[in-house]
Fold this protein.
Amino acid sequence: MVPAMVSSLTRLIIAAVAGLVVASAPARAHPHVWVTVKSTVVYAPDGSVTGVRHAWTFDDMFSAFATQGLESKQKGVFTREELAPLAKVNVDSLKEYDYFTYAKANGKKTPFVDPVDYHLEFDPKDAVLTLYFLLPLKAPVKAQALDLEVYDQTYFVEFALAKTDPVALAGAPAACRLSIGKPKEMTRELVQMLAQIPADQQIPADSYGAQFSNKIAVKCP
């Protein structure tokens, strides 16, 4: 039985993980859920950063579990309206985990507030869910250096930037430049270490997750 939430998006993941561990044992204990990330840094007309717009695509196994038993007019297809309650649960659950998104403006931590403009979409071809949401900064900030990281501190959820167009700037001053730092490759030693951790055991925050953070940096003159 998986214990209280380590760092997943919803309580549904607890039950999902319990089922997946039983079905796929012996599986690697961590991570349990995989998310592909696309992010857009959003700017105001005055050149200040106002927030980050995320699109997070969940792996097919979690997507199948999350939609299990969900009513829909067409079998195997879910509309945005039918997914609205699940989207709200996901977004409400993010707050406890700082939305898995960490920002620094000019070297200082910059907090976010509750997400807005959120919804879930289901891709029937790949049978996966994607959560879209805008994560506003508590206050807009003009930053010569903006650093963003997306990761789960306990590595319960693995976040990976999309292979194509993973990050974009919306409304940024023309002179701003974007760079991306992808997580380092998993070593064989770390894979073996993670495999030895029981599925029902918590990993202390920052023990592993920070090593696999997705880094986004924007430099503006």
